[in-house]
Amino acid sequence: MVIAFIEVTISNDQLLNNSLPRNFELIHWCYHGYHVAFGYAWFERLMLSKNQTLRQAALESLATTKSFLKTAGYDPLIFDDVYEVVEEKMKAVKNGEYDEMMLLTIFQTDEISNRIVWYLRLITAAYLKIHRVEYEPFLEFEVEMDQYCSKYVEVMDQEADHIHVIALTKALKVPVEIAYMSGSDTMEQVNFHEFYPDEASKGDITLKPLVLLCHFGHYDIFYRRELFFFFSFKKRGNVAIKMYLLY
After folding, report:
1. Which stretches does DSSP call E strand in 12-136?
2. Over 60: is that where the pLDDT of 244 sits?
3. 34-48 and 162-172 are packed helices; what angle lies between their axes, rounded to 10 degrees?
4. Which of these, 215, 213, 235, 216, lies nearest to 224 by C-alpha position?
5. In sequence order, what are the beta bridge partners of 223?
6. pLDDT digits over 111-138, tens only?
7. Is there a contact between 219 and 185 (Cβ–Cβ < 8 Å)?
8. What is the reported pTM?
9. CA-CA-CA-CA dihedral for 21, 26, 30, 33, to nearest 10
10. Which of 64, 111, 196, 215 gives 20 to 30 Å between its CA and that of 187?
11. Which residues pair with 224 in a beta bridge?
12. Radius of gyration of the chain (CA)
């Protein structure tokens, strides 16, 4: 996986007219699978947050996944080394050791980013296996849950569907909002769907949903207005927006 830095200049008129959709100013083009976009957005959100309680809660949620995977039938020999890499990076985020470019470098490094993504896939699969009674009736393929997970969840580069999103959201207690574009490159027809760990968490404003854009199976990251000035700088009267391309 490669992440390339790009800049896009947006005129002041566009900003003043609020022409971008739903109060979102920035788009981080990922053009990759759901688990990549989720992983980057989650780590970045924690990195930008100054809320140590939020960071600690994320680390604790990650820690619970080891027993979670064991319950689902995964051998620790398979995932222990991978977990240690993910935990190390999460602890560094918690301790404020990363900045924007350092996090970008992590996701540019296949040896690291692939482990993060694969572990997120294992968490997704484990949740589905543990809750197979609830989700097996909704599988699009005539297979049992174990077969479905081994073929469509655990394998890298397989596209994610709704149950993947739901499973990872519930397992890690991270809310997600996804904007689905309807067959066009324009932003005129975008439908937003919210995924929360549970009903109670909808009232929790501590962790706002990660906002992703889905277009033909690719997931990109939306940034809300409150993050705008973190990522932007003035340039000849316009605003040059920093974005990154993952491919």
Report:
1. 24-32
2. no
3. 30
4. 213
5. 26
6. 999 999 999 999 999 999 999 999 999 8
7. no
8. 0.80
9. -50
10. 196
11. 24
12. 18
Domain 3-246 class? mainly alpha
Select the more confidently predicted residue: 204 or 156: 156
* Mean pLDDT on 89-99: 93
Residue 59 has pLDDT above 90, yes or no: yes
pLDDT for residue 63 is more than 50:
yes
Domain limits, the chain: 3-246
Determine the Cα–Cα distance for residues 5 and 243; give it in Å rounded to an integer: 6
The alpha-helical segments, DSSP class H, found in 109-218 are: 110-130, 132-135, 145-148, 162-172
The residue behind tokens 């995977």 is 69
Place of tokens 């397989």: 158
Residues 6+ apart with CB under 8 A from 53: 206
> What is the rounded CA–CA span in Å between residue 169 and residue 131?
14
Amino acid code (one letter) for 148: Y
Helical (H) or strand (E) element with 80: helix 76-94
d(CA 194, CA 133): 23
